[in-house]
# Entry
Amino acid sequence: MRDGLISLGRRLLARRGAALSLAFLALVALAAAFAGLLPLDPLGQSVADALKPPSSESWFGTDELGRDILARVVYGARTSLVTAFGAVLTAALVGVPVGLVAGFYGGWRDSLLMRCIDVLLALPNILFAMALIAVLGRSQSAALIAVGVAGIPGFARIARAQVMTLRSLDFVTAVRGFGGKPGYIMFRTILPNALSPLVVQAIVLASIAILLEAALAFLGVGVPPPTPSWGEMLRTGKSYLYEAPSYAVLPGLVLTLTILSFDTIGRALTAILDRDETDASGATIGGRR
Amino acid sequence: MTKLSRRRFCITGLALAGAAPFAAALPAAAQTLKGGTLRVGVLYELANYDPQQLSTVNFHVIKNLYDSLIEYTPEGKPEPSLATNWTIAPDKTSVTLTLREGVSFHSGNPFKADSVLATLQKGADPKRGKNVFSTMAIVKDWSAPDERTVTINFKAPVPDRQILDLLQFLIPIDPKGIDTVETVPAGTGAYTLVSRAVGQGLTLKANPKYWREKQPLAQDLVFTVFSEDAAASAALESGAVDIVYNGSSRSAVRLKDAGFQVFSGPGQLVQVFRINSTRGPFRNKSFRQAFNYLMDRASILRVGYAGMGKVVALPWAPASPAFDESYTRTYAYDLDKAKKLIAASGLSADAMKGWKILVDGSNEASVTISQVVQGSLAKVGIPVELDMRQGAEYVTALLGGDFDATFGAVGNVQKFPTRVTTNSIYRTAGNPILKDPHPHPDYVAAIARVDGAAGGEAEVKAAYDNLNRVLVDEAFGIPTNSYDVGLIVASEKIGGVTLDIDNLFVARTIGFK
# Structure
């Protein structure tokens, strides 16, 4: 598996777009992780220096309370990445087992679980997230859960589709024949063989989660101030477009590039894994590539 | 200290009683103005047409659909309106009004004493009186000896200014339309309703039978509702509207620099950091008093209101007779003094934490100034979170008293000082935040003393001074700054803008140059 991951990484890096995206995400992740070591203060107010344009002291200017915009963007990465990671984890931890059970057993269990998923799918993500935040209150945990719940249907449907494809294959039948219990078959036999599309889904959901978190913040229901958040900065920056046109530039740029990077990596992975699948099918059925 | 002006008001009122029927005559400058269609951008959707439910959301229509019994000039002098004369009894226990002749409601019904009686009846009704109800607390009863005369009797001697405030606040409603006034306007105003598209706008047209000579100037008045301040400003700059009413101070400053006219009236609001003294550490008086010094008022005024206003430590606008500048200097931002008071409170570090500042998430100024306070608290070692709520959720928490501390503006701060009790945090009875019995009896007594100070100037001054001292001592409301509400930003082709004492929008004198 380790060799497989290394091979996958190499093939990703061989694609220029994916390599650049990985590099950018690594930079954002490092900045978020080690922001405390940088000489940046995202909360220090200096109203006398409010809405200053970019300068040697503040490379991207200051906000309405005189806080350094660069510092807030760097610390804002923590908000976005933690929300994205937490949302993906929440969605996967709920969605994957639901999809596995529904696909493995079929019948009434499948109908019941999938109708629940259909209900979730029928609700617009942003509205559902806002309703959930209205109930849970405005906090990073609430935003994380709201975005995560919105991601459950994607994982559930992909997991179910994978199980339905794999459950009748020989290696699964063999495990069943050796007395493998349903839990073992689902989580130890089928799941490892269904990981590829789920990994892609996780990356795609990460980009959606960052966008959704920013959208919630932009609408005023995201992480409460003074915690820095890219969406919140865009929201406030919009109000100061006349006085400080540069205010929203950096958070907007970083947000766009981060989402674009996740999306690029997701597409590259899909392409690589699709090719592997095609190769594997060709080798099995046709006996040649 | 501001000079008291009760006698001046009384004398002025009596002098004006014999004035010409149209005392609010057309300004000379307005004679050269032309009519037309006046297009006004507003930022609030109208709630209803009831003049007794006055709030910023209907500021733009009330003085165009209705007239008050009397008006104030921007300087605070009373002027005749639907009442041409008012005589305050020597013992100050009653006032007798003479009503204007030749006035009719939009329905065609003549304006007579019965409409004033119906309006008083509604105002005194706890369910229907809305904003007027608390003001009616001083009124004992009323009578109409004839169609043109109304006498209002008071429960006890009432200061002249308080009587005049009541008359200015009373807006006669057509008795035949009083039960449906929330949905159908029933006034005598310069404009009548043509149509309304909820969420989009409102169209009014000139009242052909209006009693003020040669008014209104503009034949049509079209209000467009904008959800964004920036969109309203852009509409003004592009020429899509002629006026933006009640926009933000920040936009007004920018537009003024761009050559637009900005009119700010005397009816300012005062921003107050409201403290729920029935909860947690706020039960401790020393802890509350620390907030007098924790407010970085200059920063709050700058970031929240573009510097338009004045820093204040008392809940009075500079035009209020109780305004006292010395308090602003005494209670200036001083973290060291705040720390001493916090230490004197004897509260542990844990006891001082765990509370939140309720914030109106849809109000940009509220979010920003709350962060200023949050920053000051962090500097004295008290980390607090912001409890962000949106729209109706915030208003429910604010008016229901479901908060630890929050910013909220108070109105009526340029009028008789006890009118401050119309604001929820300053209510002396039935206070939704502090509950009954009122936890600050000294404050209740100070208000009662001002209400009862109908004697000489020295007595009144002593009552005001006592109230001011009690307000900062009890410290359940920490005023930070006055600021403009109802700002009018107009293109240069507009003239004849009338400033209202409450900053309501008065369109009847506005025309095109």
Observations:
- DSSP finds eleven helices and no strands in chain A.
- Confidence is low (pLDDT under 50) at residues 283-289 of chain A.
